[in-house]
Amino acid sequence: MNTDTPKLSLVIPVFNEAPGLQELHQRTTAALEGLAQPWEVIAVDDGSQDASLEMLRSFREQDKRWRVVRLSRNFGQSAALYAGFSYARGEYVLMMDADLQVFPEDIPLLYAKLADGCDMVSGWRVNRRDSLFRKAISLLLNRYTEKVTGFKIHDHGCSLKGFSRRLVDNMLQFSHRCRYLPVDAAMLGGRVEEVEVRHAERRHGASKYSLFKLLRTGFDMVTSITIMPLQLIGLLGGLCAITGFAMGLRVLYIRLLYGNLLQLESVIAAFFFLSGMQLMVTGLMCEYVGRIYIETQRKPLFVIQEELE
Ligand code: UDP
Ligand code: MG
Predict the structure, then answer these.
(1) Which domain holds residue 267?
(2) Ligand 1 first shell, C-beta below 6 A
(3) Are residues 241 and 214 in the same domain?
(4) Co-location of 29 and 109 in the same domain
């Protein structure tokens, strides 16, 4: 590795963040200087319509270690991060939001873990300063991600994270379209650690995630990482059919012993049974559709950590 290569790259997605950028520039530069290692910042302008780009341009003019990549329109935070990762040259690659909700001053904590050989280090916002609703959604998504990836960290959604070069290179090789970085990173495994980080309320502007966008993103994430929702259909069908069948048995039993007393129940039983069977058949079809979906994602079957030869 030649001396021009930065030890550490910090990727920052920026979408209409002009009011806070000056402070971001100043605090981030100070925090990175404190590491006494060559560094670069890759600010990805995700189609901002305010003065963000001009400000980033001026940071670049002052200091060439601030690199700026401008996307042609707004592609979303996840795409902006991947764009930044593809430009990052550092041995360690970190990411951080531009809104100063997480603290650039916490970067050394993550750096220390990476330097110690971690493949991924994630911030954990112990005192998270977001609305209750946001925290509730995050809790659900965290649990879901944990369940399907088998990967347990407290705060999948924390925007302060760091990765080894190996992990970043692997992530960039994935070709599936619907990308959630914490999920991709979780899939790659390796040595993962967490560090507690500070969190503040957003001081400038509002969150870029409206209620609709938040739900959309959550739904996108859920459907991009498993076919479990599809599999639930068949399961639901099975439960319905069994319920209908059990009710039918009861109706038959009463009928044989006491006569035709449960006419309404017999119709309900038939309804449950038949709709359950239909759902089960749909579930079977979903299973095939799900498999096609998995195949098209072309995720790697395994990932090598190291060869001891
Ligand atoms: N962001 C982006 N593109 C988008 C939305 C957000 O690059 O379409 C950036 C935004 O500028 C910020 C980060 O992603 O740096 C997180 O956004 P925000 O603070 O609105 O998310 P929240 O903290 O509410 O989850
Ligand atoms: Mg924020």
Answers:
(1) 228-296
(2) 13-15, 17, 46, 74, 76-77, 80, 97-99, 101, 207-209
(3) no
(4) yes
